[in-house]
Amino acid sequence: MRKSGPPKGLISYIVLELLAERPRYGYELLKEITELSGGHWEPSYGSVYPILYKFEEKAWAERIEREDEPDRKYFALTDAGREELAQKRKDAGGRARDFADVILGFYHVYVAFATDDRFEIHDGAGWCFDETYSAWIVEQMIRHHERDFGEFDRIDLTPEEFVEQYGRPDEAEE
């Protein structure tokens, strides 16, 4: 179970990957990360800039000057940064469960707001917590799945049956 927010190290990993493509500045990284999330998540300046400064301190990235944009602080990945990225790529493979926990956790809270009498949430800004909006959210997930992976096939297994059939390699680490 996750305690809060995106999986630890997610933003650092994404920043390393984006810097591996080409030098970038902070706001550009924020826009790219927001775009990766389909516009549904935007990290704060307070999360990206400290990462860039940490990368600079650890010699994973270096500031570069650009004559065409002298006021912007561009960062480029160093050889040490590429080595760190190679390690982060290995580490990221074990984070799928963290992602699933975040997605499912927030969905469960959404449904609790819709169905649990302890919450008296008023509709706002055209959105509400109900069955119709819940179905729309699930539909969007299916559409994205089909766009990225092909036809969606339901998996009619309980969580326990799923783990038994497909396993959870990350459970051995706990």
From TrEMBL:
InterPro entries: Tscrpt_reg_PadR_N, WH-like_DNA-bd_sf, WH_DNA-bd_sf. It comes from the Archaea. Pfam families: PadR. Residues 15-87 form the Transcription regulator PadR N-terminal domain. This is PadR family transcriptional regulator.
